[in-house]
Design goal:
This is Chitin-binding protein. By secondary structure, the protein is mainly beta. It contains three helices and nine strands, in the order βααβαβββββββ. Strands 2, 3, 5, 6, 8 and 9 form a six-stranded mixed sheet that branches. A three-stranded antiparallel sheet has the order 1-4-7. A hairpin with a 4-residue loop joins strand 8 and strand 9 (198-208).
Length: 209
C-alpha cells in the first residue's frame, strides 16, 4: 500500500508587511516561496545538532542559515533578494529603492498574524534585532544582530510527540519591542518547529521613533 504524500507544512507572516511581502508585491517572489523560507532552528549557532536545553528531545536542527542569507532562511535562489541591501535592490530593480519601514515606538507591543498551509508541531518563536550602530549597507549577519533573542515565546511541554495537540502554531501573537532602540532596525522572527530540524524565518524593517 502506497503511503500518502506528505503535505507541505509551512507558513508566513501576512501582517504587518515583511520583507517577503514586499518582494511579492514587487513581483520578485511568489507567496509559496515566502512560505518556505526554512533553515536550521539552532540560530544564531552556526551548526546543526540537538536543540537547546531543555528541549533536546525535539528533532535536531539542520545547519542554520549562513551570514548574509539569514533573512531568507538560508535560501540562495530568488529568495536571496530578501537579504539585499537597499543598494543591491536598487541595482536589481533598475531604480532607486529602499526597504519600506514600519513605524514603531520603543517598548510598544508588536503584533503579527501568520498564515499556515498546515501547521507543524511548534516549539515556539524567537525574536532577534539588529545592534545599535549596525550598518544598513551590509547584509544582515550574526555580527549585525544582538547576540541573543530579545524575546522567546516557547511551549514548555516535552517530549513534543506526546503534546502535539497542545503545541499549535499561533495565528496571532505579539512581542514587546525593546525600549532602547532608535531609528532603522531589522527584526528577525523565527517560527521554530519541534518535529523537524527547521525554523521558518521572517524579517521586518522598522523605524523606532
Amino acid at each position: 500500500m502506497n503511503k500518502p504524500l506528505v503535505q507541505l507544512k509551512h507558513g508566513r507572516v501576512v501582517s504587518p508587511s515583511s520583507r517577503g511581502a514586499v518582494a511579492v508585491e514587487l513581483g520578485l517572489l511568489g507567496t509559496w516561496q515566502v512560505n518556505e523560507m526554512e533553515g536550521g532552528k539552532n540560530f544564531p549557532d552556526l551548526v546543526g545538532g540537538p536543540f537547546q536545553a531543555p528541549y533536546e528531545s525535539d528533532v535536531a536542527s539542520v545547519v542554520p542559515p549562513a551570514d548574509g542569507h539569514i533573512l531568507s532562511g538560508g535560501k540562495t535562489d530568488e529568495r536571496d533578494c530578501l537579504n539585499f541591501t537597499n543598494e543591491e535592490m536598487s541595482k536589481k530593480l533598475g531604480r532607486s529603492f529602499s526597504w519600506p519601514l514600519l513605524n514603531v515606538d520603543p517598548g510598544q507591543v508588536f503584533r503579527v498574524k501568520w498564515e499556515y498551509t498546515a501547521p507543524h508541531v511548534t516549539r515556539g518563536y524567537s525574536w532577534f534585532i539588529t545592534k545599535d550602530g549596525w550598518d544598513p549597507q551590509q547584509r544582515i549577519s550574526r555580527a549585525q544582530l544582538e547576540p541573543q533573542a530579545f524575546f522567546k515565546d516557547f511551549y514548555t511541554q516535552v517530549p513534543y510527540d506526546q503534546h502535539g495537540d497542545e503545541m499549535k502554531a499561533k495565528v496571532e501573537h505579539q512581542v514587546t519591542l525593546p525600549k532602547n532602540k532608535r531609528g532603522h532596525h531589522v527584526i528577525v522572527l523565527a517560527w521554530i518547529v519541534a518535529d523537524t530540524g527547521n525554523a521558518f524565518y521572517q524579517a521586518f524593517d522598522v523605524d523606532f521613533k
